[in-house]
């Protein structure tokens, strides 16, 4: 039985989350791996500062993925000025990936890893950008370290037809250490999600929030259908204009193409009935939005 709570209470395993295609899975990793994963990743992962509109994003990030035989690798495009360089899966992340795939029952070939260094680090409300996400697959966030809260909020246009002044439904899902939040694409289409900051002094927080000194690492695994060739000169696959390796096209940096894709991302953030085929179907060959000078 799925239970539906009033908006502000916390949801967890077994609850109807978002459109009902999302869920929280506890103890995703065996305890020996869960225990060492955080410290291992601190050392193994190539952490970067990432920029959005010229400012630093408030967390450290890294990208890893599966490099295929000819050296091509998956690319996930989202509105950052530059995507960090992709590295092959590091040893601990590889192990985590295996457990994720077993539960998810579909492959994942790309991960965005984020280090929330304290309660002051956060990710603003957004929908994941799905031009490069294999259609019908789900996105997962594995949480390690301090518990933070995933907040879902119905998109504004989802309120059409409801009485004026009705608050937008929102849901709070605490993400404990060693959990996996599965984001269904229907939920991603109709709701925004965020990890808001939690600036209460550490000593006033719950033991779960204080864990790992308030630091959290999340791993957002996706099944990506768009690829860059080894020398990063060409792009192909689901989200590109050339849909196969043979029809790969040169990547486009900046220019009107970039403005067009950024506008499409804006629409995906706002529209519950976002028409994927109409907006993304043709594909885009843009790589970086504000290329390095
Ligand atoms: O840190 C998280 O769990 C959320 C990350 C996220 O929403 C994203 O990278 O798109
Ligand atoms: Fe997200």
TrEMBL record:
SUPFAM superfamilies per UniProt: Clavaminate synthase-like (SSF51197)
GO biological process, one term: DNA alkylation repair
Gene Ontology molecular function terms on file: dioxygenase activity
Organism: Pisolithus microcarpus 441
Residues of the Fe2OG dioxygenase domain: 107-225
Protein known as: Unplaced genomic scaffold scaffold_101, whole genome shotgun sequence
